[in-house]
Amino acid sequence: MICFMMGQVGLNGNNFVKYVSPVNEEHARRIIKGIQSHPDFTNRDTVLGYANNFFYNGGSYGYLNSIAGDFVGMKNIRNAISHTSPESLNAFYGVVRSKLGSVPAKITISGFLNSFIPGSSITFFSYYKGIAVNAINQISNP
Questions:
Q1: Which of 45, 67, 86, 112 has the smallest number of Cβ neighbours within 10 A?
Q2: Is the pLDDT of residue 34 over 90?
């Protein structure tokens, strides 16, 4: 986002109309941060809000709408890894339930990520990694 705010083009050489003109990268970071203690790039709606404020039609960040469910799933998995709260664990179990239909006894985060998607030869880790890499490619090539 900072690169696009600074007027850099995407990997494909294209760019989009920007509404901000920070004087340097630090200024761009402060614009994104606003009054918050830190920007929240784990919240899709927040990222889209930034993008819509800084770029015409949100630039290429609108792609995040097409992966909304998986974006939330990845955030819930990340939170379950980073936090040991009952809330984060329950959100993780929700992801497992949505993908497997039920929560297997003694399921762990690593066990889930290393298990295969039912009817597939792809692990959930590879699936989510593919979602993230594809999102980076879509956003980086406006």
A1: 86
A2: no
Residue with the two structure tokens 């709260």: 85
**β-sheet bridge partners, residue 41:** none
51 and 59 Cβ atoms separated by less than 8 Å: yes
15, 21 contact by CB (below 8 A)? no
Helix intervals (H) in the chain: 2-5, 25-33, 44-54, 68-82, 86-100, 109-113, 124-140
- Write the burial class of residue 55 (CB in 10 Å: 0-12 exposed, 13-18 middle, 19+ buried): buried
Residue 54 has pLDDT above 80, yes or no: yes
Whole-number Å distance between alpha carbons of 131 and 128: 5
**Contact criterion met (CB below 8 Å) for 10 and 49:** no
